[in-house]
Amino acid sequence: MPRIGIVNVNTSKSMTETVVAAARTVVAPDTEVEGVTPESGPASVESHVEGHLSAVGVIRAVHRRQNDPDAPRIDAWVLAGYGDQGREALQELVDVPVVDITEAAAVAAMSVGDRYAVVTTLDRTVPMIRDRLVVAGLADRCVSVRGTGLGVLELEKDDDATDRAILELARDALAAGAESVCLGCAGMAGRAPELSRRLGAPVVDGVTAAVGQAESLVRQGLMTSKSGTYAPRPAKSLSGYPDLEIR
Question: Taking the model in full, what pTM does it have?
Fold first, then answer.
């Protein structure tokens, strides 16, 4: 029975619940989904400072859960944050697969259409997402990354307004040549089926795409390679982070 851990990149427990609920709609009946909320970090990630602070909270949360002797083993992790909140650090930290929703969404979108677009939250997060897609080698088929102007925590306040904002930009993206659209925030999880119906084109939920990919990797018996880039780090003092020290 695979157990997939989903780590939220912010400290909002309600958003963790939203993400987990969406994930459970697509996994196999024998797959367990467990949400983890960091104990420290920003309430939402919408700036570079918040992104770096988020990564620290995420690393500590995953390390704590993965090494809990009294809890069931997590077989793969999903990083539920659009942009860059320490995916590579998690791959170095654990030996199980780690899947980032940004990359998983883009791969899924390119599987059901030629070119894709991303609709996200605030405009200031657009460059962060673009950078992540470039690093991942997924930017060439991206038509656009556009922000709705809504903050992460605003997404849950008015579902109708959120859907209208997403659909407006999604329709513009289709007119510009996109054939599928990625929801560029974990807080948008669960909206894709209805938005796909209303848009008449595939809308990809990064959370469900990533959970599906993680589940597949576990069933294939694949692990994170430790032969090079993500090899175990050397033992050394980490001032202020005794929980992460290797002795």
Answer: 0.94
